[in-house]
Amino acid sequence: MFDFRFVLLCFLLVTGAVSATAQETQLAFGSVKTDPSLPVEVTSETLNVNQEDGSAEFVGNVIVIQGEMRLTAERVLVIYNQDRSAIDRMEATENVILVSPPDAAEGDWAEYTIDSGVIVMKGNVLLTQGPSIISGDQMNANLTTGMATMTGRVKTILQQGNN
């Protein structure tokens, strides 16, 4: 004898499990939109330049500032474009913190593509917006539009009132 309720229950459990793992949350990020044409200032303890591949590695208390945006990490690799006339992208690792006032995010790794103004953060991403906190596996933030998407196992803690 075939029980359709059992099949329906199995189907709902399987599709529910799939949708729970593919979560996505869109949100605003930063109140000031970043201009990717602004100069990029980098400060660190050490600088290693590789003439062969056109990269520069900043190590130790690295601080990257562009307009209002501030990115800090222990290591930042700067990759220049093909003709080495401008920065193509930056890869930050170890204790990565991104601040685009008034919001702040932290994660294990980040890549900032300068021309598009897009920052991708991965690994234990934690976004703080005032008293509210959002965590996830990855955050894609477009600093020129002020929008971000949090993906992965997304968890939100919304503070209400004057707690």
Percent of residues in helices comes to: 10-25%
Low-pLDDT stretches = 1-22
Structural class: mainly beta
Mean pLDDT over the residues: 83
Could you tell me the radius of gyration in angstroms? 20 Å
Question: N- to C-terminal separation?
Answer: 57 Å
Number of helical regions: 1
Beta strand count = 11
Shape: elongated
Strand content: over 45%
Helix-strand sequence: HEEEEEEEEEEE
The description of the largest β-sheet is: 11 strands, antiparallel
Oligomer: single chain
List the helices and strands and how they pair.
Layout: H1 4-21, E1 24-28, E2 41-43, E3 46-50, E4 55-66, E5 69-80, E6 87-100, E7 103-113, E8 118-129, E9 132-142, E10 147-151, E11 155-157
Antiparallel strand pairs: 1-10, 2-4, 3-4, 4-5, 5-6, 6-7, 7-8, 8-9, 9-10, 9-11
Main attributes?
163 residues, mainly beta, eleven-stranded antiparallel β-sheet, elongated, disordered N terminus
Describe the structure concisely.
With 163 residues, the protein is mainly β. The chain is built from one helix and eleven strands.
Structural write-up:
- There is one protein chain.
- The chain is mostly beta strands.
- 11% of the residues lie in helices and 57% in strands.
- It has one helix and eleven strands; from the N terminus they run αβββββββββββ.
- β9 and β10 (147-151) form a beta hairpin.
- The protein is elongated.
